[in-house]
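[Meeting: bench + compute handoff]

Bench side (C.D.) handed over the final construct sequence. Compute side (W.E.) agreed to return the predicted structure before the next meeting so the bench team could plan truncations. Sequence as handed over:
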Amino acid sequence: MKQTLKQIIPPPLWTFSRDTYDAIRRIPQLPDAYFHPWRRESIRRLGELKNVHKGKRGFIIGNGPSLKQTDLGKLRNEITFCMNRFYLAFPELGFSATYLCITNDLVVEQFVNDINALTLPKFIAWHSHRHFSTQLPMAKLPTFIYTSYTGQGFTRDVRGRVWEGATVTNLALQLAFHMGVEKAILIGVDHNFASKGEANKTVVSEGDDQNHFMPNYFGKGVKWQLPDLDTSEIGYTFAREAYRKAGREVVDATVGGKLTIFSKVDYNSLF
């Protein structure tokens, strides 16, 4: 029914109606999103991180198969934003990323114990806070970002609402901007999936994962959502322009990546 309506209604009207509905639906969530103790602590932490990496470069690590062709060892002393289950690579790397970002509720729901065991700073969408125990000390909780699926745009200060842009990579780009990163470098953002189907549809993996850099990333029996590459590109375009207007830049060093929004650079040339 939703897809049929989307085909009938003109795109601008569809977007307006969807965003209006989402805004109304978010109204009951607003008090907690800004005044819940966990969010108040998160806002405080985010305030301390404002421009903490001003003028520096940061690598935003996707999880595409191209990472198998990327020498990640070069990142040991770099500022790095990883996403979702990239932490599976930490033992082999011998070091962890600087930060972890997750917006997808299915990832948190299925792997919250893994997430709790990680010691690096973690940025998790507020809508997934229910998966974390109220018994956890505040210091052990992740930093919660108030995100939404609609209300397109690029947020320069992530203490407020952040548009997810259909991919956690867009959250990472906004976090990096908030922290003052001058040059954000994408790697492993292949923007190409072997699995095809309706955007955002929840599916269950039937075997080894062909869409990510490790076969057990979303292995057999794991629930995950098919990508929405078109909406992701809208978010990337917002990011490109926001960085550009601020005198900063986003470049794409993904090996063989299909994304065309950002200028391409050779990964090895960066070191």
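W.E. noted at the follow-up: The helical segments are 2-8, 11-26, 30-35, 37-49, 90-93, 105-117, 168-178, 229-245. C.D. will use this when planning the next construct.
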